[in-house]
């Protein structure tokens, strides 16, 4: 890690703890800043704040008092989830206090090559694919996964050496808080409408994503989904070298799929059908990953080896097991209809779909065109009734409503036959019954394993 002096004796406020805030505070303290952390949670039930106080960092908890900003802070490091209409953030803007997120700090101290990956869908899968391919048969360097995927970038930036690569998954929330952040390779997997409650408009959301490339130069690379016209048009404003990928058209450079064959810069890489992870969306993720890894000099043999065995990131069209001729997939991360449509497009076999969850007031009619190969639906949660009506309208032969995902698994098995796919892809958030989509997915896996053992 670079031992920079930019924060020596500088007054910095870290707003919001969680993992990124805690580690940003620790890093700034190590770099010699006078750090104050402010978290909404009370001190007695806030072990992170207690730990920081013991290490000599000033702690203010139990609310966000705007008068705290009267202390002449020179920088505010904001938790990405805190919106810009928060009174503390608005006051900081009024006072012209620079606002950054933790990934900016990580970039400033990192010695490693940085790959920054963003997009509406596919970020986590692509990030994980890239790291696994780069680590295949590697003995002298390591690819680290960091950012929005779970491990704060500021932790990884301190551990990684100049010989290593940091593969960062980056959200639009994180990218809004950068100043100098400049990835050697940037990736935008796709752009759809999302997080309008945070950004206000689709245009602002896209602008936040595009900040990924704002500091790149002609010495850097930007890997883009060439099947999206919006990204093709935006590419004209980039200074980085554009590396396109496409699953629908032959390209002069970059990664593309033609007649089931995948190529990069004209070199044959592998057959698309040899990629273990199903779905056209995962083919796009693989093409993006191939682009990054070939730019970094990874061999075709290592790319093939990883993509032939990569079974998916947990809870994202994750292959669980095959039992009695049925293949079970956990796609609990599918918390909206777009994600479920993408999952369903990935299968040509008959599907028994497990779905349902938190009712946010929407209907599910946009799923109907994607339900053609769904032979049965097992539904649960607050939206079970709405989804049952949609499934019947879509012509699904058998529709069952059960109490929860655990009960859905044996019912789905009874409705299936050898050769079928049993897919958990809820199209809804989990919070009506489960603390998180991870808990929901873990219970699905447990139920599948229990079924197979009995």
From TrEMBL:
Pathway(s):
Cell wall biogenesis; peptidoglycan biosynthesis
One family name in Pfam for this protein:
Mur_ligase_C
PANTHER family this protein is in?
UDP-N-ACETYLMURAMOYLALANINE--D-GLUTAMATE LIGASE
Where, by residue number, does ATP bind?
A: 119-125
Instruction: Identify its protein family.
Output: Belongs to the MurCDEF family.
Q: Which organism was this protein described from?
A: Isobaculum melis
**Name this protein carries in UniProt:** UDP-N-acetylmuramoylalanine--D-glutamate ligase
Class of enzymatic activity (EC top level): ligase
Q: GO cellular component annotations, sorted alphabetically?
A: cytoplasm
What's its EC?
Answer: 6.3.2.9
Compartments where found: Cytoplasm
Q: Where is the Mur ligase central domain?
A: 117-293
Q: What is the lineage of its organism?
A: Bacteria, Bacillati, Bacillota, Bacilli, Lactobacillales
Reactions catalysed according to its record: UDP-N-acetyl-alpha-D-muramoyl-L-alanine + D-glutamate + ATP = UDP-N-acetyl-alpha-D-muramoyl-L-alanyl-D-glutamate + ADP + phosphate + H(+)
């Amino acid at each position: 890690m670079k031992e920079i002096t930019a924060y020596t004796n500088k007054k910095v406020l870290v707003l919001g703890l969680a993992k990124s805030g805690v580690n940003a505070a620790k890093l700034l303290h190590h770099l010699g800043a006078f750090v104050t952390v402010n978290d909404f949670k009370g001190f007695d039930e806030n072990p992170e704040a207690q730990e920081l106080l013991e290490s000599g960092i000033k702690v203010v908890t139990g609310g966000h008092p705007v008068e705290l900003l009267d202390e002449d802070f020179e920088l505010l490091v904001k938790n990405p989830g805190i919106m810009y209409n928060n009174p503390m953030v608005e006051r900081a803007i009024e006072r012209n206090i620079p606002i950054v997120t933790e990934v900016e700090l990580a970039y400033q101290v990192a010695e490693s090559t940085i790959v920054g990956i963003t997009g509406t869908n596919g970020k986590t899968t692509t990030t994980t694919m890239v790291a696994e391919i780069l680590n295949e048969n590697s003995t002298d360097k390591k690819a680290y996964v960091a950012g929005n995927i779970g491990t704060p970038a500021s932790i990884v930036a301190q551990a990684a050496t100049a010989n290593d690569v940091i593969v960062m998954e980056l959200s639009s929330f994180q990218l809004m808080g950068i100043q100098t952040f400049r990835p050697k390779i940037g990736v935008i997997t796709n752009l759809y409408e999302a997080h309008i409650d945070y950004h206000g408009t689709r245009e602002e959301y896209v602008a936040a994503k595009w900040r990924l490339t704002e500091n790149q130069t002609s010495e850097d690379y930007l890997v883009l989904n060439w099947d999206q016209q919006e990204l093709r048009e935006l590419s004209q404003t980039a200074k980085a070298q554009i590396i396109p990928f496409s699953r629908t058209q032959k390209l002069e450079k970059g990664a593309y799929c033609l007649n089931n064959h995948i190529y990069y810069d004209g070199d044959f890489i592998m057959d698309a059908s040899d990629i273990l992870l199903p779905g056209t969306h995962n083919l796009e993720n693989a093409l993006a990953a191939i682009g990054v890894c070939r730019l970094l000099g990874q061999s075709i043999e290592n790319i093939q080896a990883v993509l032939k065995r990569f079974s998916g990131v947990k809870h994202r069209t994750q292959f669980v097991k095959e039992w009695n001729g049925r293949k079970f997939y956990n796609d609990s991360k599918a918390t909206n209809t777009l994600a479920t449509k993408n999952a369903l497009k990935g299968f040509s076999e008959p599907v028994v779909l497990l779905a349902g969850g938190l009712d946010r007031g929407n209907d599910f009619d946009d799923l109907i065109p994607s339900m053609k190969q769904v032979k049965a639906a097992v539904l649960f949660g607050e939206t079970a009734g709405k989804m049952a009506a949609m499934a019947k309208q879509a012509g699904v032969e058998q529709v069952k409503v059960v109490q929860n995902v655990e009960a859905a698994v044996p019912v789905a098995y009874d409705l299936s036959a050898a050769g079928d796919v049993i897919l958990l892809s809820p199209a809804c958030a989990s919070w009506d019954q489960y603390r998180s989509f991870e808990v929901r997915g873990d219970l699905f896996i447990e139920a599948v394993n229990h079924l197979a053992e009995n």
